[in-house]
């Protein structure tokens, strides 16, 4: 297909339960000039067989790899992409049929490096849709588009969430900065998303009243189990982000935002792991990581969230 507007990159691991519904929602998108690149990440259920049913379509490519995680799968899919914009989706989420068309048209209108759109959460057990206003904090961005991170009025790492599925990225922009996902089990998209946020010259958003994707919330147990086994991934993500900011000469400008986000993300990880890894994580934070993230020795006035600062002070005094 010529003139591909969006390359959809879809990593799938043991997604048999949702993959057909996901693929049907993608092939029925109102934007027709898309390619769908499915990367089976070593599934051991019926995922690959289900994906192969769509290989006869001109715009669907199915790639396989040994299980290496979503970050590696996205990178592999990206190497095949030919579209003007890149979309990185999760196979268990639910997409509005005009999602790609609305996001792409806004991208073109603003000649954007990066487009962010609104989402909510779908709770499978109760079949409820719930607002998730914290995923795109409209009050912290300018009343105009496009804009840069410098026009945001809050911590630049908290205006958007560091996941990729509610965004489009200009492929030429991604290639120019050689942006890649970290190939680790969890927190593998933070570096890509936040580096794109601070490097973009033109960021745009879809209007607030338009919800384009519904994040399915039903896999908290499997995700927490993954984090238990790979609990150091959040540290690797924050370390990689700091390294990228330094390499691009941005770190000094956003240092306070980075340090505050590092404290926030460290505490979130600590507060949501089981006792089996809690003590190991806390020891690492107190003895190494708080210092590495620039948190140690800062005055209370340096921190945006006093509740997080107070928890940090309590932890280091124990």
Automatic annotation (TrEMBL):
| Domain Glycosyltransferase 2-like positions | 7-151
Q: Which CDD domains match?
A: Glyco_tranf_GTA_type
What this protein is called in its record is Glycosyltransferase family 2 protein
UniProt cross-references to SUPFAM superfamilies, sorted A to Z = Nucleotide-diphospho-sugar transferases (SSF53448)
Q: Sorted alphabetically, which PANTHER family does this protein's record hold?
A: GLYCOSYLTRANSFERASE (PTHR22916), UDP-GLCNAC:BETAGAL BETA-1,3-N-ACETYLGLUCOSAMINYLTRANSFERASE-LIKE PROTEIN 1 (PTHR22916:SF3)
Q: Lineage from the top down?
A: Bacteria, Bacillati, Bacillota, Clostridia, Eubacteriales
Q: Organism source for this protein?
A: Eubacterium segne
The protein's matches in InterPro entries, at most eight in alphabetical order, are given as:
Glyco_trans_2-like, Nucleotide-diphossugar_trans
């Amino acid at each position: 297909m010529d003139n591909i507007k969006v390359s959809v990159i879809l990593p799938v691991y043991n997604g048999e339960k949702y993959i057909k519904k996901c693929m049907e929602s993608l092939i029925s998108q109102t934007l027709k000039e898309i390619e769908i690149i499915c990367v089976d990440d070593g599934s051991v259920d019926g995922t690959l067989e289900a994906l192969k049913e769509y290989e006869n379509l001109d715009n669907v490519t199915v790639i396989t790899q040994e299980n290496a995680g979503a970050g590696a799968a996205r990178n592999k899919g990206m190497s095949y992409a030919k579209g003007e914009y890149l979309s990185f989706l999760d196979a268990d989420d639910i997409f509005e049929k005009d999602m790609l068309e609305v996001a792409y048209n806004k991208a073109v209108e603003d000649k954007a490096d990066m487009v962010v759109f609104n989402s909510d959460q779908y709770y499978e057990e109760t079949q409820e849709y719930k607002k998730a206003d914290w995923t795109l904090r409209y009050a912290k961005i300018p009343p105009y588009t496009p804009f840069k991170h410098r026009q945001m009025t809050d911590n630049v790492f908290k205006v958007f969430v560091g996941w990729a599925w509610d965004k489009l990225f200009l492929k030429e922009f991604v290639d120019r900065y050689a942006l890649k996902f970290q190939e680790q089990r969890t927190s593998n998209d933070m570096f890509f998303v936040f580096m794109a946020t601070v490097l973009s010259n033109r960021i745009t958003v879809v209007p607030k009243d338009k919800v384009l994707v519904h994040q399915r919330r039903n896999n908290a147990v499997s995700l927490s189990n993954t984090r238990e086994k790979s609990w150091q991934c959040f540290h690797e993500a924050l370390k990689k982000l700091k390294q990228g900011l330094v390499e691009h000469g941005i770190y000094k400008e956003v240092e306070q935002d980075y340090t505050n986000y590092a404290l926030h993300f460290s505490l979130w990880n600590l507060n949501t792991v089981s006792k089996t890894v809690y003590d190991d994580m806390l020891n690492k934070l107190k003895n190494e990581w708080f210092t590495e993230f620039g948190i140690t020795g800062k005055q209370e006035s340096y921190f945006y969230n006093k509740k997080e600062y107070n928890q940090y002070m309590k932890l280091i005094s124990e």
